[in-house]
């Protein structure tokens, strides 16, 4: 049964997603009317500058925000709301003031700067309203909100408004509403992430010397090479395809773009988050990259399809191209220096958006040479490189230094008043690296001599493919969590209901997580949601447990 606190957190996350959709509507507002806006600003063949300017502005804004520690010095909800209002104002000025390409580019640059305080700060807000056990899925929904918001201008144009200025003004109004709601209704949640420490700009380069951070970044760069170029020029690709069939593109083309980028993209984000939790970060990201890369290579054949069939193909592409977006941030945060995670994520975003400037401009220039039918083929380079990187990421052992091991500190015994403070929604977790001697130690106390744990040849012939540890080694970390963290000392299990979902091997890092589902007021009995997660993000154990905490003073 959903508790009041859980319901509050769920409503807060929903509100953040809704405001993210609204606030990000200004991002691709100019792209939705790029053909008409290029004529009005006499942009000629340089209309891609209007999109690239937003990307560059976002990079500059994100780096400046991180350097000044704005999210930590200014109310996150206020920064979030004011950034949306500033982006809305810049979009209005493009519609009513800009009369030259230089003015349009400058205003779009400032739009990107403003939005740099919306999306990254939205990540912080969403994390503050999500427990560790559900944080990856929550951020997946937030990325889905960004996707829908980025595509919303295509839907607005699909309504056949009388002028391109009105399309921009409607997009600005939606963005402004998101900002107002954020200022009025959104607050930082109870699960605020701890600060990562002082900013260390040199780590933005030093992290490339470490294998797993390097692979996570290369995968992300391959993803970004394709993503924003596809989003920016999908309408142009669709218009050219319709024209090649001897027809004139109508509003339906922009509706197809909205559904492919926004709605299919949202579904892709949700499925990608689920797959990353179920099968691991590297495997999920690589699968999405392979699918989207195949779409790039097949794009010349897709171009000649009639619009209904092409629309279906665009739905698949739109879902695949964004499905891995949130996975890369999660992957990097798990393997970067724990003291420098903020710097690593900021740098990753900056590098990715810088690369989008090249791909957005490059695709437009290439289309002028080889036509839109073949322009998207070059985007396949990114997913190909990214997929190789993420496959290697999945196969690489996680460094032991990337996460703290179990603490040897003995906590103080719980008092009766302490038990009263344990409320539904409270969470705790611990991590450890599985040692080579854990199998033998467990055998000594259990008598379990299963060949799967000792005989390499037998293990290779099994579905596991290699030696695995006993299930008791995996679940034992939950004993530590309940005794050391939550509920705390004196706690024993009364009942457990666990499903073992994936193997654990020597050298793996595992994290035990618990969340309070129910806490009795008459007795020190607590029902917990429990799970164990492998270092690559795969859930290896999932279920519930009931505990009793004894007074041991």
Describe this structure in words.
With 553 residues, the chain is α+β, with helices and mostly antiparallel strands. It folds into three domains: 193 residues, Up-down Bundle (Growth Hormone, Chain: A); 194 residues, Up-down Bundle (Growth Hormone, Chain: A), CATH 1.20.1250; 134 residues, Thiol Ester Dehydrase, Chain A (Roll), CATH 3.10.129. Helices cover 63% and strands 9% of the residues. The chain is built from 24 helices and five strands. It has a five-stranded antiparallel sheet with strand order 1-3-4-5-2. Helix 6 runs antiparallel to helix 7 and helix 14 runs antiparallel to helix 19. The radius of gyration is 25 Å and the shape is globular. The two termini are 34 Å apart. The relative contact order is 0.11. About 3% of the residues have low confidence.
């Amino acid at each position: 049964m959903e508790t009041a606190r859980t319901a509050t957190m769920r409503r807060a996350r929903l509100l953040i997603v809704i405001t993210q959709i609204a606030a990000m509507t200004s991002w691709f507002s100019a792209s939705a009317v790029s053909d008409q806006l290029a004529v009005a600003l006499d942009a000629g063949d340089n209309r891609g500058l209007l999109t690239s300017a937003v990307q560059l502005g976002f990079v500059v804004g994100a780096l400046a925000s991180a350097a000044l520690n704005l999210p930590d010095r200014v109310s996150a909800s206020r920064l979030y709301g004011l950034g949306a209002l500033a982006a809305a104002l810049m979009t209005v000025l493009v519609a009513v003031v800009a009369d030259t390409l230089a003015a349009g580019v400058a205003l779009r640059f400032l739009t990107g700067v403003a939005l740099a305080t919306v999306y990254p700060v939205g990540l912080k807000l969403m994390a503050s309203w999500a427990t560790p056990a559900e944080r990856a899925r929550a951020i997946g929904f937030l990325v889905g909100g960004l996707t829908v918001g980025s595509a919303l201008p295509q839907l607005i144009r699909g309504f056949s408004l009388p002028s391109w200025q009105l399309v921009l003004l409607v997009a600005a109004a939606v963005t402004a509403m998101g900002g107002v709601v954020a200022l009025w209704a959104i607050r930082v949640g109870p699960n605020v992430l701890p600060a990562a420490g002082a900013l260390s700009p040199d780590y933005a380069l030093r992290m490339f010397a470490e294998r797993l951070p390097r692979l996570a970044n290369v995968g992300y760069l391959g993803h970004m090479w394709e993503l924003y170029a596809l989003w920016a020029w999908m309408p142009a690709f669709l218009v050219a395809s319709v024209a090649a069939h001897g027809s004139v593109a109508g509003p339906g083309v922009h509706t197809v773009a909205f559904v492919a980028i926004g709605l299919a993209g949202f579904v892709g984000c949700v499925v990608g988050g689920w797959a990353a939790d179920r099968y691991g970060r590297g495997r999920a990201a690589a699968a999405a990259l392979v699918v989207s890369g195949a779409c790039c290579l097949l794009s010349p054949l897709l171009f000649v399809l009639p619009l209904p069939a092409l629309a279906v193909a665009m739905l698949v592409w739109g879902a695949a191209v964004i499905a891995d977006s949130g996975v890369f941030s999660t992957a990097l945060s798990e393997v970067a220096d724990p003291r420098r995670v903020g710097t690593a994520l900021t740098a990753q975003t900056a590098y990715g958006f810088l690369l989008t400037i090249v791909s957005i401009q490059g695709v437009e220039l290439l289309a002028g040479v080889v036509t839109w039918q073949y322009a998207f083929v070059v985007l396949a380079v990114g997913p190909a490189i990214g997929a190789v990187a993420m496959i290697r990421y999945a196969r690489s052992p996680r460094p032991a230094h990337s996460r703290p091991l179990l603490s040897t500190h003995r906590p103080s015994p719980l008092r009766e008043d302490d038990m009263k403070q344990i409320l539904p929604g409270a969470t705790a977790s611990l991590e450890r690296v599985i040692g080579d001697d854990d199998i033998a130690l467990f055998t000594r106390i259990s008598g379990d001599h299963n060949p799967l744990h000792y005989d390499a040849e037998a293990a290779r012939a099994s579905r596991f493919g290699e030696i695995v540890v006993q299930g008791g080694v995996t679940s034992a970390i939950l004993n530590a969590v309940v005794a050391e963290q939550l509920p705390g000392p004196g706690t024993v299990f009364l009942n457990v209901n666990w499903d073992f979902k994936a193997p654990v091997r020597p050298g793996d890092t595992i994290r035990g997580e618990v969340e309070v589902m129910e806490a009795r007021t008459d007795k020190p009995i607590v029902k917990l949601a429990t799970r164990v997660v492998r270092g690559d993000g795969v859930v290896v154990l999932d279920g519930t447990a009931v505990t009793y905490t004894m007074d041991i003073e």
